[in-house]
Specification:
- The protein is mainly alpha-helical and about 325 residues long.
- Helix content is about 80%, strand content about 0%.
- It has 2 domains: about 260 residues, no CATH class; about 60 residues.
- α3 runs antiparallel to α10 and α6 runs antiparallel to α11.
- The longest helix is centred in the middle third of the chain and has 47 residues.
């Protein structure tokens, strides 16, 4: 290998080590201590205002773009644990890491055998090995979140019927955990189990809100906290909340329908260069063989992929609407 290949491989390895170090290191001790003290104050305060403020913070954070850490986690490792839990597939952190590393090694070996370029194999292997599992987990989280959102208004209606029939709120939560299928029943079952071992309803709901980090459930917790402080008809309040959540879901569906044409255009524009490259390489491999052997073409191709990735990211943000 010449100097350019050695330099690029060294930069790739250095970047990988830096990413792993950033991913495994947590926040500073001072910031972590302040965050935990604030969380303890919100969690154990007797004032309903503190609880409502905590829920409002989480509701606002769930609507903001995701940062390098998930809201409610203290480090990136803990954030990865939360992501795997929210996916609902039962994967452990060890299984996820072993699967990512194994996929990276396999793809790296296949590309190296096909092209003979260690630099290209390293780049594609690392990108696919750590990018594809992350995208798959994100897809599972989104699918589970959509299922939770679609069934949650039905759970609130079941709570309203139970309260109007004279049942206490703790018993209606247990009915929801057994009658509503899917993620809603699973999360409410965890709430009732925590209440059975001595946790208060507010703390059990707060734990669930921290874990799933969904605006709809945060609204539900805010409603209960305000009602316990001010009093009033809880059944009527929850009925209004259920109606608001249904209208919010309908608005999301309308936005999805109106933006479907723009999304289809973005998908076609983003996938067309890769499709054309694959078809040309399939019909005449020698015509594009230089992209796998020539250092200048490899660097040019990686630069083009970088700029295309930036463009696809910008298009995805332009068609991503949130209400």
């Amino acid at each position: 290998m010449d100097t350019i290949q050695i330099t690029l491989i060294a930069l790739a390895i250095t970047g990988l080590v830096a990413l792993l170090a950033i991913g495994l290191l947590g926040p500073s001790a001072a910031k972590e201590g302040t965050r935990r003290l604030q969380a303890v104050r919100f969690r154990h305060s007797d004032s309903a205002l503190d609880r409502v403020e905590a829920q409002m913070r989480k509701a606002v954070a769930s609507r903001m773009p995701k940062a390098h850490r998930i809201a409610g986690s203290g480090s990136r490792v803990e954030a990865l644990h939360l992501r795997l839990h929210r996916a609902g597939n039962g994967w452990t952190l060890t299984q996820y890491l072993y699967g990512s590393v194994g996929l990276a090694v396999v793809i790296m070996g296949l590309v190296l055998i096909k092209s003979g370029s260690p630099l290209l194999g390293l780049g594609i292997g690392l990108t696919a090995g750590f990018g594809l599992p992350h995208m798959w987990v994100g897809r599972l989280i989104k699918k589970r979140g959509n299922s939770f959102t679609s069934k949650f208004p039905d759970a609130i209606d079941l709570l309203v019927r139970g309260l109007r029939s004279g049942l206490p709120i703790s018993e209606t939560l247990g009915i929801v955990s057994t009658e509503v299928p899917g993620p809603v029943g699973q999360e409410f079952k965890l709430v009732t189990e925590r209440m059975k071992i001595g946790r208060t309803m507010e703390d059990a709901l707060q734990d669930t809100a921290d874990r799933i980090n969904m605006a709809e459930f945060n609204f539900f917790c805010i409603t209960l906290a305000i009602q316990r402080e001010t009093g009033g008809n809880l059944a009527e309040t929850l009925a209004n909340l259920g109606d608001v959540l249904r209208k919010r879901a309908q608005m999301k569906l309308k936005i999805r329908a109106m933006s479907s044409e723009a999304k289809a255009s973005a998908y076609i524009i983003g996938a067309l260069p890769f499709i054309v490259f694959g078809l040309i390489y399939w019909s005449d491999p020698k015509y594009l063989a230089g992209f796998f052997t020539d250092d200048r073409l490899i660097i040019t191709g990686l630069g083009g992929l970088t700029w295309m990735s930036i463009g696809v990211f910008i298009m995805s943000q332009m068609i991503n609407f949130e209400i």
